[in-house]
Amino acid sequence: MKLYVCWGTFRSPRPGGHPCRNAHEALKQAGWNPEVEKVYGLGLLGDSLNPTRSKVRNLTGQNWVPVLETDDGEVVSGSDKIIRWARDNPASGADRAA
Ligand SMILES: N[C@@H](CCC(=O)N[C@@H](CS)C(=O)NCC(=O)O)C(=O)O
After folding, report:
1. CA atoms 64, 67, 73, 74: torsion sign
2. CA 57 to chain centre
3. 3 state SS of 76
4. DSSP one-letter code for 16
5. Residue with CA closest to ligand 1 atom 7
6. How far is CA 83 from the centre of its chain?
7. Residue 84 phi/psi, 5° resolution?
8. Ligand 1 centroid to 93 CA: how many Å?
9. Taking CB atoms and a 6 Å cutoff, what residues make up the pocket around ligand 1?
10. SS3 of 95, please?
């Protein structure tokens, strides 16, 4: 699976925490080891100044991350939904991170 994030999964002082980190932590807790792809950029700049987010745009029609793309091709956009997905889909057996 692939997790698209902004500049990383670091902590931030933002209330509620850094959404990309929260999503990554929830997936790890559920036993997944997602490939993290940093897409950098800044949504405020608009599409033309965010070439690195084109994959996210193609998947979701918008610039925001985090976005999860599962091995089945399911696309889950937004940290709340990714956290819910992780709770509903714990990794098992061969899927589990070592
Ligand atoms: N409510 C969203 C907020 C996500 C969010 O703030 N994402 C930031 C990166 S951490 C973002 O994409 N900001 C706009 C941008 O940088 O393009 C969520 O929880 O997923």
Report:
1. negative
2. 13
3. strand
4. T
5. 65
6. 10
7. -65, -40
8. 32
9. 6, 18-20, 41-43, 63-66, 78-80
10. helix
Q: Which helix (H) or strand (E) holds 81?
A: helix 79-88
DSSP letters along 20-74, please?
HHHHHHHHHHTT--PEEEE----GGG-STT-GGGHHHHHHHSS--S-EEE-TT--
Whole-number Å distance, alpha carbon 43 to ligand 1 midpoint, is 8
Strand partners, 3: 36, 68
Residue 22 token pair? 């929260």
Ligand 1 centroid to residue 6 C-alpha, Å: 8
The model's pLDDT over 15-60, given as tens digits with 9 standing for 90+, comes to 999 999 999 999 999 999 999 999 987 766 667 777 788 899 899 9
Cβ contact 6:38 at 8 Å: yes
* Residues 8/20, Cβ–Cβ less than 8 Å: yes
- Report the share of the chain in percent with pLDDT over 90: 73
